[in-house]
Each structure stands twice: as C-alpha cells, then as structure tokens.
Design a protein that fits this description.
Layout: H1 4-19, H2 30-40, H3 43-47, H4 51-64, H5 66-77, H6 89-124, E1 164-174, E2 186-193, E3 201-209, E4 215-223, E5 227-228, E6 234-239, E7 248-254, E8 258-268, E9 271-282, E10 291-296, E11 311-317, E12 320-324, E13 333-335, H7 339-357, H8 360-363, H9 370-393, H10 399-411, E14 419-424, H11 451-454, E15 456-461, E16 463-464, E17 481-486, H12 490-493, H13 498-507, E18 512-516, H14 519-526, E19 535-543, E20 553-555, E21 561-563, H15 564-570, E22 582-588, H16 595-607
Parallel strand pairs: 11-14, 14-15, 17-18, 17-19, 19-22
Antiparallel strand pairs: 1-2, 1-3, 2-7, 4-6, 4-8, 5-7, 8-9, 9-10, 10-16, 11-12, 12-13, 19-20, 20-21
Helix pairs in contact: 1-4, 1-6, 2-5, 4-6, 7-9, 9-10
Length: 612
C-alpha cells in the first residue's frame, strides 16, 4: 500500500505525463494507459487549471476505480514502474499541495469513520455491522464496503455549470424623428428584448447567463470618428426573458454632412459580443434610414465566455484597417498598412517557422540542441518583431496606435494577462509569433517575449450574423457523431502510416463514426444541409493561392481537390449544417499556407453553421 507521500508523488508524476498526451505514456504498462484514458476524458481534467488540480483528478480516478488502482500499485510493487524523483519547481509545489490535501482528507475520513462506528454501536449494540479499518490515504468517508465517499468531501466532484443561452434582439436607433444636423445633439438608444419594428438597427443577439443567475450585465459603448460620442460606456442588465432593464441612451453630435458611421459595441465580461456599424446620411431632409452592418460572435462562443481584460478588434477600411482598443482609446484607431504589406510581414514569420520545423535535426529529435535553439530564436524573433513594428510602431503610426503597442508590450507581462482576445475580419495575423520588445538590437533574446509564450491568444473571426447561433455545447449522448475524411495517399509517403493510425484511433473511440476519402464525401455528404455530424475531422493535404482566396483547396484521396469557391457554389452558406459540427482541419503542409486560407475557410464553415 502506497503511503500518503508516495501517493502524492505518484499522482503528480502521472498528471505531468498525461499532460503530454499519448507520447507521455508510450512504453508504459497497460495500467497506466488505461488510467490515462479514464483521466483525460473527464470534464474535471479538461477544466483543471494547474498541475495540482490535474493530480487531484488522477487521485479521484484511482479512488473510484479500485481495480485500476490495484493494477497500478501491482506494477509499482513489481518494479515495472517507479515513483520517480526530482522534477521542477511546479512539480514540487504540486506534490506538497496534493500531500496536504490527502492528509486532510484522511483525517476527515477517520473522523467520519469513528462517527459512523459510534452510531452503529449505538444502534446495533456493539457494532456488529462495523466495517474494517479504513484505507488511510483515501479521501472522504468510507462506505459499508470500506470505500470512502467522494462527494461533498475534500475532493467534491466539480459542478458543470454551463451557462444557459438566451436568444434575444439588439435594438438601436435615434430617439426622435427628423434629419440629423451637423453640430446638433441627437439622442441615440440601445436596448434588448423583442425585435423592434421602429428601431433603425436590429440584430439577433445570443446572451449567456449562468444557471444560478437571473440576469447578466452587458457593457454598451458608442465609437465614432464621424460623431462626437460619450467616452464612458453604459451598463444594460438583461433578464432571462431577453429584455433589458431600461435603455442605454447617449447624446451624439454629427461632425460633418454626408455618410457618417456610428459604431455600437456590446461586451459581456470584457468579451466582444456584438457590433453594429450604423451609417447615416447626415443633413438629409428625410428621416434617416441608415445602412447597418452587423457583426457578432460566430456560432461557437456565447456559452463559453470567460472574463477577459484585453480585447482588440480589427476591421478593414479604405487604405488600411481600423482598430478598436478600448483599454487605450475611446475612439477607433486607423492602421495605415496595406494588405500587401501586412501579408509580407505575416509570410516572413511563417516562412521562418516553416524553415525551422523542416530542419531534420529539429523535426526528428525530441531534444533541440542549444545551437538549433539559438538559431531558431534569433530568426523567429527578428521576423516576429518586424511584424510587431509594422503594425504598431511603423513610420505612419499615429500616437494612439503607438500607445496600443506600448500597452501590449507592458501589460502582457502581468500575471493576470492570461488571454488576449483578438476579434478581426481580414486581419489574419499569427499573433502567437509576434515578438514584443522596445529595443530589439540591445535586449537579450528570450522565448518569453513572444505573445504566445505570455498568454493564450483567442482569435475570433468577426462575421456578419445572418441567423442566430446554435447551442454551443455538444451533447454526446447516446453517442457522439463523427465524420472523418482522409487523404489515404499520405501513408504512401510517410513510413509512420499516420492515416492508418488516425483511423485506428477514431475506430476505437466508441463514437458513431462515418469515414470518407473523396471530394464527393466532403461536398455532397459532409456538407449537405441534412448532415447531423457533431465533429467533422479532415486529415488531408491543403493548398492556398496567393492570387485568389477562392482557389484555396482541400485535397483528399486520388488527388481529388475541393476549392473554397466550389464549396461556396455547390454547398452554399444558405443551407446550414443540421449537426452544427466542430470542424477540425488537420492538413499536411499547413505551415506553408497563406493567411488567406484560414481567413477564407474559417468564415465559410462558421457561416455554414459550424460551432467552431
């Protein structure tokens, strides 16, 4: 029987190995492989945020699976497994935390065991029903069979509190009739509820509300370079009915006659949720009926929005792009960089990344030599820094844009800056590879200066909403419906036979599996309106065109290719997929693809009804 200390060490080591995926358990006994499968499929493993929480999940699984626990201990006792030694600071801290948790749980279990025995002695006259000694390491109170309970103890089962999805309407418009006049204040209001027949801008909205809450607060702000607008946002409280308590009202003042755009942004917990671009014809004598562009969270997001402290929004405009960075500026900021200039900088980063991973000495070894590491860092950092400068610090950058660059440089080092949310259209920047420093020539290089090493980058395509998004959660009961499409010719070129391995993986998952290898399987089956697949997995080749985004293509078996243009014509957006699948494109040569490949296929699948 492992001691509490040995149990803590074992759970931490197992959790650290499981983090690495199947590679972490290669060549280990079947008990560890079975334990891995039992652990990584649990919701509490997916939501665990650090090694301590992950190790406690391993403890739970061993506790709930006495047969698996016995097999694992037998492998340890027979010498097929060791408990290991050493480790880094994170492992040492996690081991101490888990050991403390196990000690406290053991004490709780002993106290509850004593109380149970005393109660049984009182009820039965001498404890004839009393069980044997409790297992001291196991948390919680033992049952009659001697196994401790888990629920409500030190390691309670985590509650899966998925938010409820409220479908409502965002309404916005002028509060009075008549024409908009330059230099005159006009009222403008924003509210949620029933679809208005009088508001000048209306959009479907999807609001997540926690099951324990009766309402949620949304932040509404106006932005414009054509109107004077209040700098401060307003808060709208939205009930479960979808209606807001009252309306957010603003005074707006047109700055010039003619087309003038007012941007309405709606956030929840710092997350971008909805955007309306309302363009009036200022000075027109008739009541203005504006042009309205609607943008919002694509299919995937409404139910999984955590709090965000850093959000950037990008949209293409004449001569460049527009940036909304409310943490720095209350007004939209112009980025004077052409798509061609931006593409050159993006391709520079991607080319260096591709050259690095195609280096056989790097690609075929688990450990990178110090020389290869230094070379890769120098080249990737240089291109990543050029990308940073070209966007935020270029010769034509405004003072506001430079401030955003400085803000990103300094704030991204904060401990609570865990996620950078980038909402964009036509701005497919590889943010994780952007390198941040204020003096590249005289500052020592460090991997930690890449944005992707400082935080998680959450990239959200800004799409025009045509229909309300589907429920973001996938219900796997009674089974999960998966369609996997392959290019079987990949095995002919790779001795590791990756397609065979992929097929074996899916066939062993216990899912409702449909397989295919042809263009027809993709275009006329997987993307038919009646398709009920919940996961669409593409394991194939891909190519992109630098001249025409519509010529980007997915290549399946027998060199059968399907271009984005063909999909848009023969499997158009208007027929949404009934299963609203998660689409995963696992494409060979993806490092060579241009940004237009992702900027084309991502909006296409989302517009077809994909969750993500």
């Amino acid at each position: 029987m492992l001691s509490i200390q040995e149990r803590a060490v074992a759970c931490v080591l197992l959790a650290a190995s499981f983090r690495r995926g199947p590679e972490g358990i290669r060549d280990l006994p079947s008990s560890v492989n079975d334990l891995y499968q039992a652990v990584v499929t649990r919701p509490d493993w997916v939501t665990a945020r650090n090694l301590t929480q992950q190790a406690l999940v391993v403890c739970r699984v061993l506790l709930e699976s006495p047969v698996l626990d016995a097999r694992y201990e037998a492998d340890v006792n027979s010498g097929r497994l060791g408990l290991g030694a050493g480790g880094n600071e994170e492992m040492a801290r996690a081991t101490a935390d888990v050991e403390q948790a196990l000690v406290q749980a053991s004490q709780q279990g002993q106290q509850q065991q004593q109380q149970q025995e005393q109660q049984e002695q009182h009820n039965d006259g001498g404890g004839l029903l009393g069980g044997g000694e409790s297992d001291p390491w196991q948390p919680g109170a033992p049952t009659r069979a001697g196994k401790p309970g888990m629920r409500g103890g030190l390691f309670p089962e985590p509650a899966e509190e998925q938010p409820d999805i409220i479908h409502t309407w965002l309404n916005a418009g002028l509060t009075e009739g008549g024409a908009l006049q330059v230099a005159r204040a006009h009222g403008f209001e924003v509210y949620l509820g029933e679809r208005s027949t009088t508001a000048q801008a209306v959009a479907a909205a999807v609001i997540p509300i926690a099951p324990t809450e009766e309402s949620i607060d949304l932040t509404v702000q106006l932005l414009s370079s054509d109107f004077t607008v209040p700098a401060d946002p307003q808060v709208l409280t939205v009930r479960r009915s979808g209606a807001s308590d009252g309306r957010a009202t603003f005074d707006i003042v047109p700055l010039h006659p003619g087309p003038s755009t007012l941007t309405v942004t709606v956030d929840v917990k710092g997350n971008f949720l909805q955007r309306l671009d309302v363009t009036f014809d200022v000075g027109s004598q008739a009541r203005p009926q504006p042009d309205v562009d609607v943008y919002g969270r694509p299919i995937a997001a409404a139910g999984v929005l955590g709090e965000r402290i850093a959000t950037l929004q990008f949209l293409p405009t004449a001569g460049g792009y527009q940036l909304i960075a409310r943490q720095v500026s209350a007004e939209p900021i112009d980025i004077r960089i052409t798509p061609a200039e931006l593409a050159a900088r993006i391709n520079g980063v991607r080319s260096e990344l591709l050259a690095t991973v195609q280096n056989r000495a790097v690609a075929l070894n688990l450990d990178i030599t110090p020389q290869d590491n230094a070379t890769a860092l120098q080249k990737l950092a240089f291109e990543g820094y050029l990308l940073f400068r070209s966007i935020f610090l270029g010769s034509g950058a405004s003072p506001q844009l430079v401030e955003v660059g400085k803000w990103l440089l300094t704030e991204s080092t904060r401990a609570d800056f865990t996620t950078l949310q980038v909402v964009s259209s036509g701005f497919p920047v590889p943010w994780p590879l952007m390198y941040l420093t204020d003096d590249f020539a005289h500052t020592p290089l460090s991997w930690d200066n890449f944005i992707g090493m400082r935080c998680v980058v959450e990239q959200v395509p800004m799409l025009e909403i045509a229909t309300a998004p589907p429920e973001p959660r996938i219900d796997p009961t009674p089974s999960l419906s998966v369609r996997a499409l392959y290019n079987t010719e990949i095995d002919a070129a790779m001795p590791s036979l990756p397609v065979t391995a992929q097929r074996s993986y899916w066939q062993g998952r216990g899912v409702a599996l449909t397989e295919g290898t042809s263009a027809d399987d993709l275009m006329n089956k997987a993307l038919s309106a009646g398709a009920t697949d919940q996961v669409l997995y593409l394991y194939c080749h891909a190519e992109a065109s630098s001249l025409d985004p519509a010529d980007a293509r997915l290549i399946l078996s027998d060199s059968q290719s399907v271009t984005l243009g063909q999909l848009q014509v023969f499997a158009p957006w208007g027929s949404a997929l009934a299963g609203h699948p998660l689409v995963f494109i696992n494409a060979c040569e993806s490092g060579e693809l241009t940004p237009t490949f992702y900027d084309g296929f991502v909006p296409y699948f989302l517009a077809k009804g994909a969750r993500a």
